Description:
Elements: H1 2-11, H2 14-34, H3 38-47, H4 56-65, H5 72-76, H6 82-92, H7 99-106, H8 117-128, H9 138-145, H10 149-167, H11 173-183
Helix pairs in contact: 2-3, 2-8, 3-7, 3-8, 6-7, 7-8, 8-10, 9-10, 10-11
Amino acid sequence: xxxxxxxxxxRQDSKRFEHTLGVEYTAAALxxxxxxxxxxxxxxxxxxxxxxxxxxxxxxxxxxxxxxxxTAVEKxxxxxxxxxxxxxxxxxxxxxKNQDILNAIRSHTTGRRNxxxxxxxxxxxxxxxxxxxxxxxxxxxxxxxFVDLDKAFLRILEDTLDYLxxxxxxxxxxxxxxxxxxRGGGNHLPQ
Length: 191
């Protein structure tokens, strides 16, 4: 764990590293609350933004070379590729073999169908970590996260889509697909 922390501190600027530590801490707390492996949550939290420091060109290049699919929205907004590229780097550069950790890194921005508890934890931790100050309904979602993980997950998806619709931002199709799947009761979430 210390080795991964040091690696992220070297590669990230101080603001990004502070966010990374916040996600690690929050993911660990949520893992304890929901009976998930705490170390897996910490590792996923530490590595979730490991490709954020790369340039857009580098992220695109890695995707092309490694045949990582790129959506039209990602091509237009390559910074969105940091999750997919991050999962690749976590495996190839940092030696992570645990598929649940890799999926948590890969899906931490858009979600996906059939997410594991760890994936939801990292998704939520990225949104509610202590350094975040500008997210819709943040105080409410922070409380909800420790009461009902699934409801917090749905609320974040809903608030994200509302924000992007209101501001005219590009919406990744996977985010919409995730929202529609879980809103419809997929993976045993309440409606």
